[in-house]
Design a protein that fits this description.
By secondary structure, the protein is an alpha/beta fold. It is 39% helix and 18% strand. The strands form 4 sheets. The chain has a 6-stranded mixed beta sheet. A 4-stranded parallel beta sheet has the order 6-7-8-9, sandwiched between helices.
């Protein structure tokens, strides 16, 4: 990105950090390197009416996402349990990867997000390298900083364990395909070589992470190789862990000593690792993650929509786990609203607390400001409005947010967590560059690109409709495969 010119931002309120005291009318100066050069109070009368309405705070982070510009519901993929939802993704038509990524990242920027962990899902492994290059361009074009999770998926292509038992549950004409489903999976050596080539796509707003998709989907030797490579290169690692009950049951059978303990033995549990979901953790596993400095991306909307369960947000925070928050491409209302996601997490963490006691909302904001950012970029001093920090900022229309307040000076944290939404986002800066102004993207025409993506998807769907009968057959077989005997329900 080109260095931004020196700029000045004024606002009626500033929340410098999750744990900071809110400031009154202030001026923030951003230097040519895209960092905060000064923060100073100003007279309220010096602000324009538009400036006086604003609350400025650190930009948000999305600690776990999949870059779905083309939303799954639009493709006829109904919300359901993850295990039967995955084959339903066969309904998603193939579209231009740059367009898909630009729309996805543009929506996140519009929601006040400047940093995202993008866990890439490819529909065709043969074009993964080209897709990574397209996402790299989209990150530059939109202005959002992307940590690109390079997927390693070389185990259990259709079910967790025992492919032959699953093959017996599908019609005879599909059995050969089921049994051969793992034949086209990229081995670790091939994937590592592609990863090396993809390093050419890195720039200031795009960097690679190792992304073993999940323990059940990556071979032990692949996980071990990633642990070694990540340590050697000081690169971050991102992985789904214990998202569903079926995964937890598989892990208990496969690793009786404990899945997290096994991953620790491989050298994966450290402060460079982020695990997504982590719904089915035991107290001992929560404690282990805390000791190792692992970050957990909580994705409550996705867990609700995919019937995965309720993560122990309060328990993890109480144990000292670094907790961040992700949309997973599955926001509750399909609208990429991170402020609503934070509200959901805050209320969820308060359930079961003693009367009158709940989670400090600043703990949630810290996950959105600092912890999620660190999970993507590592410690860079961001997530706070401080001298020398990266100027990643979001300005909200606080006057609209607190429009009916009877209090002269309403608490901005209470208002944010209580009712903040996408529609309150006015402007966003990433690295000192304004990427959203007056509610619109500055570098791309998001509505036009959304229209182009919908048109392209409809054309692709008409030209190559999904095999819905095959999808339904596979879903039915999966339901039988994962069904428990009556005595175990």
């Amino acid at each position: 990105m080109n260095a931004p010119a020196l700029s000045v931002l004024r606002a009626g309120r500033v929340l410098p950090a999750a744990d900071a005291v809110p400031l009154g009318p202030s001026e923030i100066r951003i230097d040519a390197a895209g960092r905060i050069a000064a923060i100073a109070p100003v007279a309220a009368g010096a602000l324009t009416p538009e400036e006086a309405r604003l609350l400025v705070m650190p930009a948000l982070s999305d600690a776990h996402d999949h870059g779905r510009g083309l939303r799954t519901l639009a493709c006829g993929v109904a919300d359901q349990s993850l295990e039967t939802w995955l084959p339903d993704l066969g309904r998603v038509p193939r579209v231009d990867p740059w367009l898909n990524a630009a729309v996805a990242l543009g929506r996140l920027a519009r929601a006040g997000i400047s940093v995202v962990n993008h866990c890439h899902n490819t529909q065709d492994g043969r074009v993964l390298l080209a897709e990574a290059e397209a996402v790299s361009r989209a990150a530059r074009d939109v202005g959002v900083q992307v940590a690109f999770g390079w997927p390693f998926f070389d185990r259990n292509p259709l079910v967790y364990d025992d492919l032959e038992r699953f093959a017996a549950l599908v019609p005879a004409e599909l059995r050969a395909d089921v049994l051969a489903s793992g034949a086209g999976m990229r081995d670790a050596a091939t994937n590592m070589a592609l990863f090396e080539q993809a390093k050419a796509f890195e720039h200031g707003g795009f960097r690679l992470q190792y992304h073993p998709v999940a323990p059940q989907w990556a071979r032990p030797e692949t996980l071990r190789a990633i642990a070694v490579a990540a340590a050697r290169e000081n690169r971050r690692v991102h992985m789904h862990v214990l998202e569903t009950q079926a995964q937890a049951e598989w892990a208990a059978r496969a690793y009786p000593m404990g899945l997290l303990a096994w991953l620790d033995d491989l050298g994966l549990l450290n402060d460079r690792l982020t695990v997504a979901h982590a719904v089915w953790l035991t107290p001992a596993e929560i404690a282990l993650l805390a000791r190792r400095g692992v970050t957990v991306s909580v994705n409550l909307s996705s867990n609700l929509r995919l019937r995965s369960g309720w993560p122990g947000v309060a328990e993890m925070l109480a144990a000292g786990v670094r907790v961040a928050f992700g949309l997973d491409g599955m926001a509750l209302d399909d609208d990429e609203d991170m402020l609503r996601e934070l509200r959901l997490a805050w209320h969820a963490a308060a359930q079961g607390a003693p009367l009158g006691v709940g989670l400090d909302p600043r703990r949630v904001l810290q996950g959105a400001f600092e912890t999620g950012r660190m999970s993507a970029l590592g410690p860079d001093g961001g997530g706070r409005i401080a001298i020398g920090a990266p100027a990643d900022l979001v300005a909200l229309d606080f006057a609209a947010l607190a429009r009916d307040s009877l209090v002269d000076d309403p608490d901005p944290v209470a208002m944010l967590l209580g009712r903040g939404q996408n529609r309150h986002v006015v402007s966003v800066w990433a690295g000192g560059r304004q990427i959203v102004a007056s509610g619109a993207l500055t570098q791309i025409d998001l509505p036009a690109l959304e229209a182009d993506l919908t048109r392209m998807a409809r054309e692709a769907h008409a030209a190559a409709p999904a095999d819905t009968q095959r999808i339904a057959t596979m879903r039915a077989a999966l339901q039988r495969f994962y069904a428990k005997p009556a005595g175990q329900r």
